[in-house]
Amino acid sequence: MIIVTRSGISDDQLGDLVAHIERAGLRAHVSRGEQRTIVGCIGDERAIAEAGLSALPGVERTMPVMKPYKLASREFAVSHTQIRLDDADETVIGGQEIVVIGGPCSVEGREMLHETAHAVKAAGARMLRGGAFKPRSSPYAFQGLGEPALKLLAEVRAETGLPIVTEALDPRHVEMVAQYADVLQIGARNMQNYALLSEVGRTQRPVLLKRGLSGTITELLMSAEYIMAQGNSNVILCERGIRTYETATRNTLDIAAIPVLKGETHLPVFVDPSHAGGRASLVAPLAMAAIAAGADGLIIEVHPSPANARSDGDQSLEPSAFAALMKQAALFAHAAGRTIHAGATRHTVQV
Amino acid sequence: MIIVTRSGISDDQLGDLVAHIERAGLRAHVSRGEQRTIVGCIGDERAIAEAGLSALPGVERTMPVMKPYKLASREFAVSHTQIRLDDADETVIGGQEIVVIGGPCSVEGREMLHETAHAVKAAGARMLRGGAFKPRSSPYAFQGLGEPALKLLAEVRAETGLPIVTEALDPRHVEMVAQYADVLQIGARNMQNYALLSEVGRTQRPVLLKRGLSGTITELLMSAEYIMAQGNSNVILCERGIRTYETATRNTLDIAAIPVLKGETHLPVFVDPSHAGGRASLVAPLAMAAIAAGADGLIIEVHPSPANARSDGDQSLEPSAFAALMKQAALFAHAAGRTIHAGATRHTVQV
Amino acid sequence: MIIVTRSGISDDQLGDLVAHIERAGLRAHVSRGEQRTIVGCIGDERAIAEAGLSALPGVERTMPVMKPYKLASREFAVSHTQIRLDDADETVIGGQEIVVIGGPCSVEGREMLHETAHAVKAAGARMLRGGAFKPRSSPYAFQGLGEPALKLLAEVRAETGLPIVTEALDPRHVEMVAQYADVLQIGARNMQNYALLSEVGRTQRPVLLKRGLSGTITELLMSAEYIMAQGNSNVILCERGIRTYETATRNTLDIAAIPVLKGETHLPVFVDPSHAGGRASLVAPLAMAAIAAGADGLIIEVHPSPANARSDGDQSLEPSAFAALMKQAALFAHAAGRTIHAGATRHTVQV
Amino acid sequence: MIIVTRSGISDDQLGDLVAHIERAGLRAHVSRGEQRTIVGCIGDERAIAEAGLSALPGVERTMPVMKPYKLASREFAVSHTQIRLDDADETVIGGQEIVVIGGPCSVEGREMLHETAHAVKAAGARMLRGGAFKPRSSPYAFQGLGEPALKLLAEVRAETGLPIVTEALDPRHVEMVAQYADVLQIGARNMQNYALLSEVGRTQRPVLLKRGLSGTITELLMSAEYIMAQGNSNVILCERGIRTYETATRNTLDIAAIPVLKGETHLPVFVDPSHAGGRASLVAPLAMAAIAAGADGLIIEVHPSPANARSDGDQSLEPSAFAALMKQAALFAHAAGRTIHAGATRHTVQV
Questions:
Q1: Torsion region of B328: left, alpha or beta (phi above 0 gives left; psi -120 to 50 gives alpha)
Q2: Per the CATH hierarchy, to which homologous superfamily does domain A2-63 belong?
Q3: Which member of A38, A61, A75 has the closest CB to residue C40?
């Protein structure tokens, strides 16, 4: 921690500041400049509350020197984290292959789920998404089918072999959802729901953690740290657009978050182009941009009939559009020096 | 719902759109203009998913006509909601009196709580705040003392007569927290934690609902609607600053939210100037502005020794500063045609 | 300037960093901590480009120690700046009296200007606003009447004695506008139009400088510094709402900017509640909040018939609403320990 | 224009609204629904001030039906605009080839400009950028060399054949800058400097128009419209990052703006990854993302010695890094079905 003092700090105030630092078990290093006196804290700065320092009279500003996250930090791990979802190692998250997750926003019934799952598998998706519990801003909107949806997901997994990603909303449901899901999703609204983060941290299921609507990159990593601090280090970060003043899109995809995160952490980074743009026509260009910027995977909403979807119809792709996207994605993955799974029909990369 | 179609929508596309509307049980009113064809939906527009409409080929934009909230809407209630916290009607929220809540960010121990409670009461606070469960962005930061803190709050209430406001973070704790608290606080990070909102909705305790860091005014009202839809209509809304690009303050107090909310809803509107500004020196000017803009109450952090606070030290007031704020607040409440409680020492309004 | 180096910076990299600092004529103070090595620059840090430092290999972050503004800084001036607009000292900006400016968004003709000027004067306004050159986001919208509008403003000033505030958009017009205007307004879109700032800095007319839609408080002060660096120190800062994600209001009034600016600078601080809220019904509550937060003045749009205004009709007050606002403002000014001019009809402050 | 009236609008208020619309020469279409009465304006809605309508008593909300831009609109032009910079058609903007502009932030002298120009040309850049007039937030920072820098640019163009892009800041300089420049740049801070836009609109030089820090996509197109309305339709739009709450990057690159703009307008769309990220390490990933999202070109800052640059050193690439970026860009351009110029050394696309 570095402390910039106010011009004209008195000797008494400076003495109090040094004493305050020393009471916390740190050493203080005072450096008198021409303009300002600067005080550095030597030792583990987490022992001292930054907010308390700012409350001292002679203090103008403080700047932490250390990152607030440890387990999620790139310095902590020797190599990038890879997450394996099956014994056959077909689906490895964070490896050379860019992993694509496809499926409906909500599980609305057996038939639509079945149809979507087979379609996304044929197109090359490695995993199936589908919401059983839906966080909706209106209490009157469709809230998901609940556990019956989880059973349908499990049925379709049995049929297709696709691992399942589904959201947990409530700490009381985590154990139950974890019985069905291969990956637990934490939605954007719950990025700082610490009770929920701790609960998924106590399972051993991989967690897909979405960035909050106004979450900073640092806060996203701190939320990953919450999960990891409970012993579950299988965290996949997911950029899905942030809230800005621009209303032309549902959210603003923070594409730079991908390389920034790759520099800061060893965890895999996914992108959700469906929620970012909020319109079907934007999903493919945003997905390609994500691959080009270094994303390790994508999560994309697919629905057999978007106009009749009970949620997120405007941003859902029809299966044929998803298949076209996968073909295009193969070209960009190749340019990025990576691979993408080709599905039932081999994608021919013509160069 | 009004639907603006694309220029050049085909007759078939228009027919599909009308059929889609009619399948939802609404009637469609087609109006052909020179530039665009507009379609209005007649009937309860909540029957139709706006997102689904946008997925239809000829649709350019949709605009809802009705507000998405009902119970929270000003049209729903004849008069402004008043919330009574005690049989003696000493503390009435949403009435003529501006109600001030004071107390520490976290309950750190008996002595500091005792000292703070007596000080804020003497200065005129009508209620005591104090966190037992703290949502912290770092898993390594102080998370609150938990239930022992609730017991301390109850002890101090018994001594001072001050009703207690404290935060619930986890749906599994709501029942327990409600046994101690007079008002349940939902923090900014949990504004869209629907499991928690539903749970506090099932108690009969008044709820102080804070606006999320990037919550819109409409979303805040929708979150109130979640609580009210469960049968608990005692909701107090609280503006506490939103996240913007400006870094000179912790958050940006959206002062206009007060008159906007007073126009949209019958619920009382509070302001938290401590979190909004994030610095002790800004608390008083923001509190005065809130009163001038029509707030029904304030919630303010007070700590006997801010530099040693375990959380939010930079924005906590010392008891003497809080007492001075209360004196100034009395002058502004008077200018606003309202009253404020004077505490042990009568505030003399000199005019 | 304080420089936090990367963990693992090599001795060579550190040597290069020190050499780089010394080449700029500063001394480097190296402080090796347990976690990081910190380097402080001793001397006038403006001699060194912060951006250049960040480009050096071993540098992680830099933090300036000095404020980037000098003339605008509170440390620079002994007392708060007061600006006198007439020999009789009737209108003093930055003094005890809160100065209110009223008038139409645009000067649309003689009659409406005449009517508005007399009405705002009767209600207590000290100055008249009115646009001759209007920055409009559409090239097809009304752009103002130009110089004829300036002549009308001068005529009405002769009649009413009210000093005139009007906007300059183009550096080529500044001299001409300054012949008519008592105060030159720089609009929000031009806060960083440096050619224009320099030009108004070369006149001796006071300048009302509006904060840009996404201007930070620091940038606003730097723009004031541009004007002052040319020799014109009569700058009035004006908060008028910033752009955020919230769409319920036209902009988000950053009410905290008032006390923050009062702490940072000796310049007077005004507020424009009309543009901030964007709706007539919000003007009065935002104006009262501004007074309560410490504003030195207000600038308010008034139009005899808002529905027929050629610009900003939705946020313009009718003269009667402006008169009511002034009465209410007198009460809040009193609570703030300040005065407000009562106009033709004395405001009776009943307490 | 569609007008949603308040519930409980009186017949008189509705009559006034209809009369107001008819006075503007439009017809009103009144549609009484169960919840609200809706009024549509039939005719050219630009004849009616939206702000004036909102000022009428019974009006709740208004929604324009038409886009506010005409010349810039995709509907206006049959095909995408292509801009030719030389008779040999070597550099065509908006065509199949992705055009890359490279060069220093500021022209600091002959030698550095010469060195950079040759390096970027060798790597495949089609144009040279370099600032002669620099908009700096501090009046004390380096403001550019002015006309001597323009002469140096012209010299280097003569040597290398690279067309020149340089910024005009002041309407009084436009004519002079246009004598040297092949493309006039309008910087982000001047996106709504209408005097400047009109002035460059009166030249026949192509204009590279950067999006403002908080400019919406619609406002960017309206600013293009200002230029085009003066007769200059050679406008290149440039996304360069917007201001958001995230501080990990200098700005937030709005990658979705590319496909949104490609849908809305026929004008070419460029991206400036240097200003968007603000750090050299982010330039390449953002550039690749821009290509993948459909950008027609890139503008990138290159400096022979970033640590010694007089501006923007932190985000400038060294020539070798720029050459590496160009090689990678060729792979992504290929994936996007486009080409990129290979420079002196042919980029070998290995597939």
A1: alpha
A2: Phospho-2-dehydro-3-deoxyheptonate aldolase; domain 1 (3.30.70.1140)
A3: A38
